[in-house]
Structures are given as structure tokens and as C-alpha cells.
Amino acid sequence: MPTITIDGKPCSYDGKKMILQVALDNGVEIPHYCYHPGLSIVASCRICLAEIEQPNPRNEGKLELIPKLMPTCQTPASDGMVIHTKSPKTIANQKAVMEYLLINHPLDCPVCDQAGECHLQDYSYRYGRGESRFQEAKIKQPVKDVGPYVKLYSDRCIMCTRCVRFTKEVSGTSELGVFGRGSREQIDVFPGQSLDNELSGNVVDLCPVGALLDKDFLFTQRVWFLSKTASIDPLTAGGDNIWIEHNEGQIYRVKPRTCAEANKWWITDETRYGWKFVHSEDRLAQPRRQQLSDMIDCDWKRACAEATRGLRDAAGKGAGTIAVMVSPMLTCEEAYLLGKLARGLDSQAVLAVGPVPTRGEDKTFPGGYTICAEKCPNRRGVTRVLQGFGGEVIDCDALLAKLADKACPIAAVIVTGNYPANWVPDALPKALGKRFVVLIDTLKTALSDKATVVLPGATWAEKSGTFENHKNRLQAFNAAIPVHEGARPEGQILLDLLASAGLSSPAAFDAQAIRQQIGGALAGEVQLPKDDAEMGLDMQYVEL
């Protein structure tokens, strides 16, 4: 395996890579602004320049110093190279670049949203001078509203052009460009255009300074108060890897987590801003049951007892009298427990997958990122697990047709939701009729006032589990925030129902333990989330 040496540290690599990427892959810090592994290389910021010694094949392979500083982002690594990023010549260049970048940069770090994760701030401390020699007045640039989600603070921009290259190469929409010359040069949208594509929020993640900011997150929370948890996109079948950033039980933002097999470095605006239902005022927060045609609040013990009593009564009428509608928004572990509950009570219970929302068609961008038309995270995983119980797994339309048949023997139905908005098909309440209905859901819907027993569940951010994306990649995720007051994770609800029905002993939900129970369907295939120590280092930068 070829190896280069960076500041005395041997760094191995595979294939053809630039020196900077080899350094990043090996945890070696080389300052950089314009370079990003998902974009073209322009070598414009110049702070990554370093002294390089390279073997000379014409001189018996002896190391010879290249007489000028070379951009490590644009120089291919070659076996035997020796790179010096801390030599006097390299350090002098780093200090000069930082001084030039800060000439017109405003000293507004205390009010800048990027403070705490700003690489201009970090590099200024690490590589810059202790004081500025610039005495003249700074040039002021305007603040611009460039799109529905993004605000541009032009005077903070260092012209790395990451955002411009992203809109040209990845989204293919080319809304952003470089305008002006010299000290008046600035990023802006083209006349008559707005930064309004499905991937627009990614330019905020790409910006290494506080020039492009997220209007949704602006002035809401200091980043050093935030904790982050590895998770998976809960809204589409793409299986995008994300970070949930939260504080004191409140989600403040969602950002992409690098995964070459799923989403590379990007996420859609739909995923980035679609988490608001977690804190919706319409969250179900109390178990409820029907009494004399009215819905009344009750405690969890009473609700579970009522649910299992009704299901047992239905099962006593014969085989095939229980049906379960498993939402594709639920995890594989929850689907397994639902199947176990239904088949434990009725060996011929009908297993169905809930409504699968779709919007348009799959859309692939020039950069290779695909937005899935299927707006649920786990249809394939739910189907896979239910098929493990044997028998046919039907879709929502087929279940509705069965329920509408007057000769249908189904007397009780377990219905699950967990969708981010009202999901109930118009035909479902009528098809359920006067059957015994146990509803496990997170938001108030037309069904939550008509079910026999209502059990409030948890959103994906409040629990752990596994989703299977449209490429059949199984990915696990962890709970980020506490469960909404009064609700419980579906996995725990189902374990409580199993215990109440006498089908298992009381237990606390453990996603990993349930995966082991599922066995062959998931064993060895699930991509487990890594902790911050393993995944916290975003390869866009090296954290200081």
C-alpha cells in the first residue's frame, strides 16, 4: 500500500488521492477552506499550501524538495512523498492567508450564528497573527435574503466558492454565482432567481464561515449547548444519515451525516426541516378508551388491559379474526413485536402494511443524489419482518377491501400510524365500522376519536430502531430526546401488551435485543450507528 509522510507521520492510502484527502483520512490536520471531497477542486483559498519533497526517479529515487509551495488539495499523493505543513515557509503562508482573509471581515463573532463551529475563527486562533496590521476602514457588504431557507451575510464571505460549485455540480440549478472583482467581489443569486431547490440547505453546511446561514436556526441556540445524536431520515425511503442536534429535550436542527452508501454528504430540505411534528401541539399525550360512546382519558395499565381484553375476545371467535396494520413509518423491531402480538393471539391474524405515501417520481441530481418519491422510511423493512411470520402480507388497499366485505371475519384491528401529518385514508374509518380498534399513533387524526383504545406512541427521534431504505440497506439509529410526556415508544407499548396478554414476561424495550430475536431477517445486515468518537469527525474539515 502506498504511503506518504506528513510532518513525520506515515499515512497510507488506496487508489488515486490528493495529499489533503490522505491527510484527512489519516486524522492529520491541514487547514483548508475551498476543498470538499464532494466538489471539484479549485485550490483558491491557498491556506493548504505546504512544502513537498518527492522522490526523483532520475536521481536514484532520492527525495528532492519542490522549489515552491504546493496546494495539497490539488497535488496527487505519490508513494514516498514527504510533506511539511509546519515548516517556516508553510507557516508564513498560513499567517499571510489568514491576514488577507480578515482584512474586510467584520469582528462580529459574538452575534454570528457560526461562532463555535467557524473555521475562520478556529484557524485565526491557530494559524493567524495575534493582532491585525490593517488600520483602514473595512468594506461593508449587504445582508441578502437569497432563498426561503438561506440568508447571506456577504461581508463574512471568504470566496471559497463551495456554495457556487454545489449549485452547479450537485443540485445542477446554478442559482449562485460570483459577481464583482477584487475587494468588491461577492456571492449572489442571478437576477430573477432564488436559491430555492430541494437541496438548498446544504450550502449552509458547506460554508466554512458565517456567510450563509439557516434562517430556521438563526439566533435560536448557541451551538456549544447542542448535543448531537446519529439518526436516519424518518420521512423518505432514501435512508439518509443525519445528525439530530438538540438541547434539553428540544430539537433545534437536523444536519447531514456523511455516508457514502446512502446520501454522501447531503440531505434534502424536506429532511432538514421536516422534523417539526416532533414538537407539534397535536401530539397524543394520554391513553384513551371508549366508554359509553365517549372517549375518556385513562392510565396505561387500564388502557393495556382494555386493549388485550378486546383482542382476546376477538381471537375467541375463531381464526383470522384479528388484523394488524403496520405503518411503514415504524421500525423493524416494532413491526416484529406487532406481528408477534397478533400471531400470538390469533395464528391466522391478517398482517398488512399501512398506507405508503408517495409524491411524484424519484429524482436524481447531477451530483448523484436521489430524492425518493416514497415518503416513508421503512416499507421494505416492515414487509421483510412480517413475511417472516409466514402467510401473505397485504397492503392497505387490500386490507380495506377485506374490512369492507360484510362476510369478513375480522373483529379487531390494531392500527399504527406515526406519520408526520394526517394520514388516515378516507375509507378507513368507515371500513373499520364498529370493530374493536386499538390505535397506536403520535398525532391526533380522524381515527383518534373513533378508536376503541388509543395509545400514544413516540416519534423516531424519541426511540431506537432500524429502517431499511430503498436500496435495502438496513440502518439502526438511537433515541435523541426523551419521549413526549404521557407517550411511550411503540416497542415498549407492544411489550406491555404482550405481557398483559400473557404472551411474555414484563420487559423493557431494547432494540438490539429485539434484533437478536428477529434473527435471520436482520442478523449481520444492520449498519449500527457509531458514536461521536467514531463518526463525529466530519471529513469536510478536521476539527481543531
Characterise this structure.
- Helix content is 23%, strand content 20%.
- With 544 residues, the chain is an alpha+beta fold.
- It has 3 domains: 3-98, Ubiquitin-like (UB roll) (Roll), CATH 3.10.20.740; 106-219, Alpha-Beta Plaits; 288-530, 3-Layer(aba) Sandwich (Rossmann fold).
- The chain has an 8-stranded mixed beta sheet with strand order 16-15-24-23-22-17-18-21. Strands 1, 2, 3, 4, 5 and 6 form a 6-stranded mixed beta sheet that branches.
- Helix 2 packs across helix 3, helix 7 (300-315) crosses helix 12 and helix 8 (332-345) packs parallel to helix 12 (490-500).
- The two termini are 29 Å apart.
- Residues 532-544 have low confidence and may be disordered.
Q: Helix content range of the residues, please?
A: 10-25%
Q: How many domains make up the 3D coordinates?
A: 3
Mean pLDDT: 91
Low-confidence stretches: 532-544
| Percentage of β-strand residues | 15-25%
Indicate the CATH class of the largest domain.
Answer: Alpha Beta
Shape, principal axes of CA atoms: elongated
Number of helices: 14
User: CATH topology of the largest domain, which one?
Assistant: Rossmann fold
Report, as a whole number of angstroms, the end-to-end distance.
29 Å
CATH architecture of the largest domain: 3-Layer(aba) Sandwich
- Protein structure class: alpha+beta
Radius of gyration: 28 Å
Query: In which order are the strands of the major sheet placed?
Result: 16-15-24-23-22-17-18-21
Report on the biggest sheet: 8 strands, mixed
**Number of E strands:** 26
